[in-house]
Structure formats: structure tokens, C-alpha cells
Design a protein that fits this description.
The protein is mainly α and 242 residues long. The protein contains eleven helices and no strands. Residues 14-240 form the ABC transmembrane type-2 domain. One of its GO terms (cellular component) is ATP-binding cassette (ABC) transporter complex.
Length: 242
């Protein structure tokens, strides 16, 4: 692994994103649009204060998973990855470069959504807003890592999208957004304890509530899950689509 090659990969991805305005709009603006829509659907500030923090983590996670899996698959299908792998570029360099590029994009994405949600929509945050941005960006990075991993098993953009019901939606349903995890049946609670998004949502909710209860543990689990997904992605990465 080389830091120079990793950064070169990240810079190339950022340059490509800069020329794709629709993807940039989807990454940066769409979560904020969803938060605005949710605020007026709920129509009550106290209900929004209860639901909003969880969605600050869920929306970036979901969107980064979708965009990363599709973009990575396109690189492999178009032969870009195969050409890159003929150069002195390791699989881990490639994946870390993508993770770095989309991680920087996630910081911008989350910064915008937190600004809109807190300053524009009046979400009450008891903890540090800066820490909230960093934690939500880590959630987005988790979605990026899972998207990089699952893209190895898809042969088309449509198949990449099909992984969302398998990888993303169960985590969204069981993360505590709709029902507190401790109120679920023992089986569902046990399953939710395996999903990293549960801990990401718990960390965001703790910061919004102004408490650090289990915060270090939750962030450690999310970071470990992201690193594990990147490692598995390096093992399963293929040069081209069969």
C-alpha cells in the first residue's frame, strides 16, 4: 500500500465527481431535501426532534452506499479498473482511495445536512454540532465501505441497486428508528445488535441528546465495521465484470 497511490486514486475520483453535477447534487443536496420534506410531513417540532437525529445518520449512509456501489461497478464494467490494476496500484490502494474521496464528499454532504437541519429546521442538539458532523460522516463512510464491498458481487447497476433491500433496509428497520431496540422481540433485538447502523444511529442520538453514554463504544464498532468491509472489499475486488 502506498499513500501517494491512494491519494492519486482519491484525486482522480474527486475530479470525476466534479464533472458529474447530477451525482454531486445527489450526494450533497438530496439528504437535505429529504430532511426538509420530513420536517413538514411530521409537522410537529417535538416529533422531528425525536426522529431527525437518527435520519442524519441514516440518509448519508444509504445514499453513499448506493452511489459508491454503482460508481465502482461502472469502473469495473468500463475496464477502468482493469487498466488501473496493470499499474503499480494495489487493491487496497484502490479501495482506500475511493473511501478517502467519498469520505471527503461525505463530510461536505453531512455538513450541509446538519446546517440545514439544525440552523434551518430548528432541530434541538444538546451536544457539539461539530462532533455530530464527524459522527454522521463516519456513518456515511460506513455506507461507502459496504458499497465498495457489495459492488464486487454485482454485474450491472441494476444488480448493485438490488443489494439495497438486502444490506441497507434491514439495518434501517432494526436500527431503532421506528421502535426502540430494547422494545423489540429478543430475536429482532439480537439481530439489530449485529448491524453497525444500529450503533451509528445510537451515537448520533446520544450527541443530539447531549450525552456521551456508550459513545466511544458505538463509534469504535462503526469504525471497525467500516474497516472490515474495506478489508473484505480488497479480497473480493475483481478487475472486470464477468
Amino acid at each position: 500500500m502506498s499513500g501517494a497511490r491512494t491519494w492519486a486514486t482519491a484525486r482522480r475520483v474527486l475530479q470525476q465527481l466534479g464533472h458529474d453535477r447530477r451525482t454531486v447534487a445527489l450526494l450533497v443536496l438530496f439528504p437535505s431535501v429529504l430532511m426538509v420534506l420530513l420536517r413538514y410531513v411530521l409537522d410537529q417540532p417535538e416529533r422531528f426532534d425525536r426522529t431527525g437525529p437518527a435520519l442524519i445518520g441514516i440518509f448519508p449512509f444509504t445514499i453513499m452506499f448506493l452511489v459508491t456501489s454503482v460508481v465502482t461497478l461502472r469502473e469495473r464494467r468500463d475496464g477502468t479498473l482493469e487498466r488501473l490494476m496493470t499499474m503499480p496500484l494495489g487493491r487496497l490502494d484502490f479501495l482506500l482511495g475511493y473511501a478517502l474521496a467519498f469520505g471527503l464528499t461525505a463530510l461536505l454532504q453531512v455538513g450541509v445536512v446538519v446546517l440545514v437541519t439544525v440552523a434551518g429546521l430548528g432541530l434541538e442538539v444538546g451536544g457539539s454540532v461539530g462532533l455530530l458532523v464527524l459522527v454522521a460522516a463516519l456513518d456515511a463512510l460506513l455506507g461507502t465501505a459496504l458499497g465498495l464491498f457489495t459492488s464486487a458481487f454485482a454485474r450491472s447497476e441494476f444488480q448493485a441497486v438490488q443489494f439495497m433491500p438486502l444490506v441497507v433496509m434491514p439495518q434501517v428497520f432494526l436500527c431503532g428508528l421506528f421502535v426502540p431496540r430494547e422494545a423489540m422481540t429478543p430475536v429482532l433485538e439480537a439481530v439489530s445488535n449485529v448491524f453497525p447502523l444500529s450503533y451509528a444511529v445510537e451515537a448520533v442520538a446520544a450527541i443530539a441528546a447531549g450525552t456521551d453514554q456508550n459513545l466511544v463504544r458505538d463509534l469504535g464498532i462503526v469504525a471497525a465495521a467500516a474497516l472490515l468491509a474495506l478489508g473484505l472489499g480488497a479480497v473480493t475486488l475483481r478487475r472486470k465484470t464477468a
